[in-house]
Amino acid sequence: MANEQPAWANAGPETPATPRTPRTLRKFRSHQVLTTSSALIAQTQSSQPSKARAGDAGQNAASLGSSARGPTHRRVRSNSDAAAREATLATPAPTQRRPARKTGSGIGVKRSLLENMVRDGPQNGNTHAALQELKYLTLSTRVEADGDGMSPYRVYLWLILLNVPAMPTDDYLALIHRGGSPAYTKIRNDTFRTLATDPLFKRRVTEASLIRLLNAVAWKLHDSKVKNRSRPTSSRRREMELLVNTPPSISEEPEMPGSTSRHSVADTAIYVQGMNVLCAPFLYAARSEVEAFALFHYFVTKECPGYIRGAMDGVHRGLRLVDRCLEIVEPKLAAHLFSKGMQAELYAFPSVLTLCACTPPLPEVLHLWDFLFAYGPHLNIVCIVAQLIRIRDTLLESANLNKILRSLPPLDAKEIIALTVLLVRKIPDDVYSEMIAHAK
């Protein structure tokens, strides 16, 4: 047994005999093992529930067996800890409980009203009233999320607010299996740059998933264009006959097919630069690619088709509205920017096209999108104006406006939303109507 002792047990005579030396510990071994352990086992068995006795007795028996085998290289407990050890063994082990389920924000086990509405649906079947309450709760309580912006129910809230129909997974897989779309090369040239400096996005979303989703959307838009071109010519002839036979009024001209006031699917591009950034938050927030695809395809085809046309006329109309709204709500700042030649066309194009997704941080973008999907993506115009007003003093005093406006400060969704709600009251009805229709 001497060969099993650790090297530091053979210390010379100059080593003082302290309670921590192995020599003293060997003296306490017989007392600690042969007498104390038996009494502690009996005391533990009498004080603990019957279910816990077997485990504790087996644990103490294991310690007896290991002690009987002789010294090991593990440090032995000193005698000064014997009382504490006795008290510990005599105390019944607490009942282990399953950790409480936490919400996305880690507040506790209780669900918020917003989460309950998303999970349980409308009460009494009143869908309209439930939808209005859902929008209000989105504005007033915010979606619970963790530090990375992740929420277990946000994607379902978006699906409800945008009224996106269910999509079979096989439909998405069929688009994937078709391979590269006609826009595949353009997509590959953009995807690697998507939110390249955002570590949260890079950690959760791969470039491969972004390519798959954009390529599937491109195929879907391509099929719609082909279907639109193959319409029977008789329908076009009937449209022309109606235009010819209906005399125009004095105040309006006849609307010819292909004019900018009437857009069809044939005018829509299957991919434009910037769609990759607009797609990124959908992929980040969704729990699957199919959900992200359903949301993104519906959004670009129903909510903002004007943003993805070849000429991107919807984006340009939105930029002009940024200037008009700024001139209405903050005329001094607008006059200062215009005097320096800083129209929105020069700095706000990414913010309009991507609904401010180009401005970090991404968790704040998601909170801002909760608000935009609840009350209308057209309010993004006012949100951009709100960002300008928040740095009003800096813009009025700065000599380099271009540098500031091309790199806006980090988003603060709560402050921007609160300011947007105040500013939107100052927007005249005719301008607000243009905001609603500008992306169509």
Automatic annotation (TrEMBL):
**Which InterPro entries does the UniProt entry name for this protein?**
Rab-GAP-TBC_dom, Rab-GAP_TBC_sf
Ranges for the region named Disordered are 1-104
Q: Mention one GO biological process in which this protein takes part, according to its record.
A: negative regulation of septation initiation signaling
Specify the domain of life of the species encoding this protein: Eukaryota
> What are the Polar residues biased-composition ranges?
32-50
Which terms in the Gene Ontology molecular function aspect does this entry carry? GTPase activator activity
GO CC, sorted alphabetically, is: mitotic spindle pole body
Classification via PROSITE patterns: TBC_RABGAP
Q: Which residues form the Rab-GAP TBC domain?
A: 148-376
- Write out the biased-composition intervals (Low complexity): 13-22, 85-95
What PANTHER family does its record include? Answer: MITOTIC CHECK POINT PROTEIN BUB2, TBC1 DOMAIN FAMILY MEMBER GTPASE-ACTIVATING PROTEIN
The protein depicted here goes by the name: Rab-GAP TBC domain-containing protein
Q: Which organism is it from?
A: Penicillium capsulatum
